[in-house]
Every structure is written in C-alpha cells, then in structure tokens.
Amino acid sequence: MKICSACGSAFSHVGWLCPHCGIQPEERNGFTAFAPGLCSNAGFRDDHFNELIELEARNFWFRARNRLIVWALLHYFPNKENLLEVGCGTGFVLNGIASAFPKMKLSGSEISSVGLAYAAKRLQNADLFQMDARSIPFCNEFDVIAAFDVLEHIEEDETVLAQMYQAIRIDGGLMITVPQHKFLWSRVDEHACHVRRYAARDLVRKVKAAGFEIVRKTSFVSLLLPLMMASRSLQRGENPNYDPLAELRISDLPNNVFERIMAIERWAIRLGFSFPVGGSLLLIAKKIK
Ligand SMILES: [Zn+2]
Questions:
Q1: How far is the centre of ligand 1, averaged over its atoms, from the C-alpha of 9 (Å)?
Q2: Most buried of the four, 3, 90, 154, 224, by CB within 10 Å?
Q3: How remote is the CA of residue 60 from the centroid of ligand 1, in Å?
Q4: Which residue numbers in the chain have pLDDT < 70?
Q5: pLDDT per residue over 20-42, tens digit each?
Q6: Residue 26 lies in a domain
Q7: Residue 25 covered by a domain
Q8: How far is the CA of 151 from the centre of ligand 1 (A)?
C-alpha cells in the first residue's frame, strides 16, 4: 500500500495521485519527490556523490560490502520478490543486487535528487524516488528494506526504523549495515556527516524496539580492525595534510590484499561465525507480525 504524504490515506493503485485528497507528490529533476524541501540535505553533502562514483567501483571496502550484502540477501531472504534500498546513493549496491537477482523488483530512495541522477544512470529498471527516511510513504509493501551505512547520518534513527517496520510486509526482512565502535570516531566520520558510530547493543535495542526480531548480527571489517584503528588514530591529531578520503584512495596492492582479507572474513561469516568486533556491523532482522 501507498500512503499519501498529504492526508495519510492508504491506496494501492498505480501512480501517486491520492484518491482521497487529490494531491500528488511533485517531481524534482525527473524523480517523484516526497520531501522536496529536503532535496539538498544537511546529512550528506552532494559533492560526496562525485567522490563516491569514482572510488567505490574499485575500492575493496565497497566491493566486499556488496558481496556480503548479496550473500546475506540470498541466504536469509531467498525467493523475495521486491526490495527497497533507503539511501541508495549512487546505486552501486542496487546495481550489485540487480546483477545477482535479475528478477527482483528494486526500488531506491535518496534524500538528494543529485544522488538519484547517478543511480538512474546505473539502474534502468529500478523505481527511484526522493524521500525522507523519517517519513516512508508505504505500508506493508516491501519484502525487504535495506539501509547500508545510512542510519548513522540521521539523528532520528528510531523513527526511521519504525517507518521501515511499517513499510515491510509481514515475514519480510530488514538488512542494515552501520559503522561501529565509538573508539573509531575520527575526522573520516565528520567528513562523512555521521551523527554517530554504533555500539552493536544500541542498534539491536533500537531494531527490537521498532518491532523486529533479530535474525543475524555480525561485525565485519574485523580482520582489518587493527589497521583501521591505526589509520583512524593518525587522523585524530591536528595533521595539516589530513585527507579524509585517503582510506578510499589506497593503491592497487594494498587494495587487492585487503579485498582478499575481506573474502576470508566473508567465508567465516558464511560458515556461521559472527565477529564480535569490526569497523562495521551487519544486522539482519524480520517482521514477524
Ligand atoms: Zn491524500
């Protein structure tokens, strides 16, 4: 079901013209915009998309995260037919999901219509729209909702989780990744407009409070955690040569080595081992009622 952003009525026909109040969301840059006032938002700067589009395709972290996500989707939610990615950015993850699940109906939302334009270039068949994650205009609609490194940008993360719960069908699933451990906080987080890095127990508490049942929780970027700690502590001081993107611009040799290490880690996760610590956290949950 769709929920009218103007009057709150539910309806299920094609298109977004509300049969109750006759209001239709406006379009911005060719995308349906549910929160046009927030098109250029404070939580994620538009110039990040320009940085990301260059870096994510070759960077080990983005590549390894995609593989982990595709595995988790296949393992925990086989035969699901549709998925919404909240905060789809440049569409890098949705593109990976589309390759692995060509029959799945994919939707992606982003608060910035600049990000959506990048995503649209990669994804011809996905339904892309501008939306505030704190106000999701759907009810019992999606088999899976995913948010990969999104919640840490949003002050009201509990509102987002409650909205996701409403928009997921019963027996549907939630997939989340977030940056983990407060002790890793550095200027990288500030540059990325993070509000927080999570402690696993806090995210679990918030996800359960929204109504979900936890299915799987594991850290990742665990074997590389010592290197990450070293890198982040170097960035904490007043270094005049500080480059917030240094971790993303690493050269080919370490990039390849790190990608191999992430593959070993993924192998262990697939076998059922859940890492207690790591730079990121993967959480899988279900809506059971
Ligand atoms: Zn309405």
A1: 5
A2: 90
A3: 45
A4: 40-47, 236-247
A5: 999 999 998 899 999 988 876 55
A6: no
A7: no
A8: 28
